[in-house]
Specification:
By secondary structure, this protein is mostly helical. It has one domain. The chain has 4 helices and no strands. Keywords: Membrane, Transmembrane, Transmembrane helix.
């Protein structure tokens, strides 16, 4: 397998992982909208803030994935930042004993970080 094809494979894997993360964040936002309608005790402004953050974050991760898929460089730093934030969320989920959410999010964040940082490292060595 030649070096360009391996580079393409890593980029497509990173793009797929970012698309999955973006979808998860958008699904979380949709779930928060459902909870806003079904629960009696709700604060509208914080709920709107969370939903807007989910929409912007999910679409941002999807755009980062598109950047990786197209071979562009604009998705690198936001992808790393989003996954470092996700690891912070995982820490608090572990402290709250919400393991069924913390473990999958942690696996996804670590694998995406690994792919993104591996790609950045290889591209920096090639330049």
């Amino acid at each position: 397998m030649s070096a360009p094809s391996r580079k393409y494979d890593r980029r497509s894997i990173a793009a797929t992982l970012l698309f999955i993360e973006g979808g998860v964040v958008l699904a979380l936002g949709a779930w928060m909208v459902v909870l806003g309608f079904t629960h009696e005790n709700r604060e509208i402004l914080p709920l709107l803030g969370v939903v807007l953050f989910c929409i912007v974050g999910g679409l941002g991760l999807i755009q980062c994935g598109r950047g990786y898929k197209d071979g562009k460089n604009y998705g690198k730093a936001p992808a790393v930042l989003a996954n470092l934030i996700a690891l912070g969320v995982v820490k608090y989920q572990f402290e709250g004993a919400v393991y069924y959410l913390a473990i999958p999010i942690g696996i996804l964040a670590v694998s995406t970080l690994f792919m993104v940082l591996t790609i950045a490292s290889r591209e920096n060595k090639a330049a």
